[in-house]
Amino acid sequence: MRLSVLATLLVLPVSVYAAGEDNSTPPKPTDTVKECWGKRVYDADKGRCVKPEESSLNDEQLYDDVRALAYAGRLDAAQAALAAMSDQNESRVLTYWGFTHRKQGDFDLATQFYQAALKTDPDNLLARSYYGQGLVQEGRLGEAFAQWKEIRTRGGAETWAEVSLRASLEDGRSFSY
Questions:
Q1: pTM for the full model?
Q2: Planar angle of CA 44, 47, 48, nearest 5 degrees
Q3: Which of 112, 133, 155, 160 is such that its CA lies 20 to 30 A from the CA of 17?
Q4: What local confidence, expressed as pLDDT, does residue 13 receive?
């Protein structure tokens, strides 16, 4: 099975993507990552680090912090910022709940979040990529390959989501963003 998956993937052109949702740049360290410790975010209006739920940050700012914290490996802090976001059923929020739980070693819980994200938005290529990377780590290559095919079918060929899952299928890599 692995050889047929690899053979299929190797015929495709390879682009190099470093990180991000569908771009080639990793998330920039936010002031939260640079200035705050523990489960805090930097609130510019208050001029200090505060608990996410006490911040004046909007969902876009919190999401930027979630991505930057996850990239920095501060998964508990990323989850605290996620919990402060207003719509817990939004696909991107569910995706990052899945991502952080997967990186913490709870793939069963991560799967629930990824599936909820995909039920909310079947075109969420990032959720498909992260879910597929987890499936690779679990040795479930056929299911991971199906996610890769879905990404391509849904217009995601050569996006970061597609390329990162392809890399994971080819050599088992997993990405931390």
A1: 0.84
A2: 105
A3: 112
A4: 38
